[in-house]
Write the structure tokens for this entry.
Amino acid sequence: MTVVSDVKQCLASLKGVEASLSNLVERTQDNESKQILHETMMVVSEIVADLKKRVGELENEEYQYKGY
């Protein structure tokens, strides 16, 4: 696998984690747990945004990897 495809696979996995955390926030009854899960989801969201930027940078550096 190329670096770009590895980063994209990681990004997809993190999006899944983000969605799972969001689901847990909605289903959790305990307010403290809900707050912790929400904070964790926000951290993951920031990482997802950073990785999206990095994918764009990598694609600009390596044109042949676009579309993976």
